[in-house]
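INTERNAL AUDIT FORM
Audit reference: QA-55
Scope: verify that the stored structure record matches its stored sequence.
Auditor: D.O.
Record contents follow.
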Amino acid sequence: MNIEGLDYNTQREKLIIPEYGREIQNMVDYAMSIPDRNERQHCAESIIAIMSHMFPQNRESENPEQKLWDHLALMSNFKLDIDWPFDISQAERLLTKPEPLKYPMHDIPVRHYGSMLFELFEKLKTMEPGPERDELTRLTANQMKRNLAQWSHSSTNEERVASDLAKYTDGKIQLDIDTFKFEKTHNKENDRPRKKR
């Protein structure tokens, strides 16, 4: 659709540094068209002042002036013929994106417990009976109950936790529901204000 007078951003040239917006890019384009070098220099310094006021929090970063001049060089595709107060030869490094982080993918039977709990299950399998294993069992069982409640599973009871703990530790850990004390879990239902009748 092409309606006279309407100008969509999707039809315009892509911005090099979108954070500054199209008006700053237009100022940079205008500065490159100024024939007089002194006037062009003054215009570039004015653009830098405006850019600095747009993001005052950047003044606390390392070399804020250098960064602004690097941005100006990038927005002008290094074609702005002025006396640069800083070396802009390394400005392109600002546009390089870091490699994406590799997300650790673990093959776990159920996601609601998470990979860290499955690491604890493996540790519990190898531990000798004693106070240290009992304490880790207590922490693990309570975290399992919290995870079940957080993931809104309809069955967050102690029997399920005991059953799952025995299952994922290959039967090494058996909770006695009659003697084991679970921490109270926070119930989302209790958070809702009750309607007055």
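Auditor finding: record pair retrieved intact. The radius of gyration is 31 Å.
Action required: none
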